[in-house]
Amino acid sequence: MVAPLWLGGWRDFFDTPPDALAAWNDIDIRERIQALTALPVEFAKDTTAACAAELVMGEGRRNFLYVFIGTFIGGGLVIDGRLHAGPGGNAGAIGSLPLAGGGKGKRPWQLLNTASVYVLEKALAAAGAPTAAAHDARAWSPELRPLSEVWMRETCPAIATGIASSAALLDLEAVVIDGEIDRTLLREVIRRTDDALAGFDWQGMTRPRLVEGQIGPDARAMGGAIPAVLCALRAEARAFSEASGSLGRRREPRAPRRSQSNDSCTVNASNAAENVQR
Fold this sequence. Notes:
Blueprint (H helix, E strand, L loop, with lengths): L1 E2 L14 H5 L6 H6 L9 E2 H12 L6 E6 L3 E7 L2 E2 L14 E5 L5 E3 L1 H4 L1 H10 L18 H26 L3 E6 L3 H15 L11 E4 L6 H28 L14 H4 L4 H9 L1
Parallel strand pairs: 1-2, 3-8, 8-9
Antiparallel strand pairs: 3-4, 4-5, 6-7
């Protein structure tokens, strides 16, 4: 299963009662779901899962920062062809990168305060348009395009700042940008972000190429399914191997294998991506 981390955070950003968000801090989603089933339950950050989908089913780049523009902007990280989740499962959290300027309490804004689709949703709602239009072709319609233009004027330079900071630390080959917005709008975001990157001083670091993601809005769900698919493939391959080995010869009985997370079918997104590629 996949979900955002720290669902109880960013209380000043959401227009919701603080107590409603704070309640999420005491909920272990994986533990709750595990209590409902005997099947193994694995948890991954949603944008890490989306990054896994891009790694497995995209164009096979070996070193890239993955950026997913959704209700919140977030990301994942691939180093040397392997999904790098980090010790806390939160690597590639580009949405939390600080930007210049201060929000409430004089703290720097984070990238997600500017570049998330939620910001566009709020602008549409204030104009009397449906918030769902931020996620489909209506956002680029003649009626709503001016609001999307305003959003991009803030969003694209902010994403460029996050990319430049990441490139200095990670020596990236590329930055793959995907999201749950209309593809025309996404391509315009990529183009304008690339234009903004041209204004940075790249001395001492390599400017990464910006690439459109191949998966789209379903990347998070597809990435979350990778471990389950790999588990099924392993079980099928094991059954075939055992059946083939039994033909033509008598096999000695063997001691039962010790159970390990339901026959070792529990895998994380990083291992899944590596094994599916093989």
